């Protein structure tokens, strides 16, 4: 008999008792101290907290760049702690996009070619021109990074990250190097991607006002979660001031 029960939908991430200790003995640094967290699929989530509170450590573990010391991390229904290094590499390649503070574009390649570097090895990518169109740079495909402003370079980096159609997009200080007006245009692009492609977006930032555009805000302190706030009303990135 065919299974007619509705398909179960999983959160993007379920994290239970996650700890991360760097180093050993008296030099040990407890970066995460038993984090429990659920990130629903399709949300735009902002992670705030003081420097050194463990935000990047968490991002690196759920992004498949590092492993926790103890505890469990599930991506959908898959236990990431049990993945082999090969499986983690596949997870990063097939499901994850990263955007960093500094855009890490290849200076000798055009915007189009920077995006194509990723689409050439992805499973079912977008056309690089479509990805550039999505970030409002369809008319700048032939320009080199040096011919683009900081905000435009960051938008190329976002196009490169989303062109492989990732399930989750991790952004570590995406507006950290930008003035506030330019930063707002980058946040607007991230919101569009979340809404149009249904990509789960996680933004780590020191710009606390960014929280106003999120579905969910996670406040981090001293290796743990201090508070999780669900926003009943959200602001448009255009209206955010910092
Ligand atoms: N590779 C490492 N080896 C040793 N300690 C580390 C390493 N990476 C991070 N740490 C330490 O772990 C703690 C958490 O660092 P993490 O980078 O996750 O904080 P953060 O909240 O992202 O900070 P920031 O906002 O400054 O980027 C800090 O005390 C940091 O010094």
TrEMBL record:
Residues 13-242 form the ABC transporter domain. SUPFAM superfamilies: P-loop containing nucleoside triphosphate hydrolases. It comes from Desulfobacter latus. It comes from the Bacteria. Belongs to the ABC transporter superfamily. Macrolide exporter (TC 3.A.1.122) family. Keywords: ATP-binding, Nucleotide-binding, Transport. One of its GO terms (molecular function) is transmembrane transporter activity. GO terms for cellular component: membrane protein complex. Gene3D superfamilies: P-loop containing nucleotide triphosphate hydrolases. This is ABC transporter ATP-binding protein. Pfam families: ABC_tran.
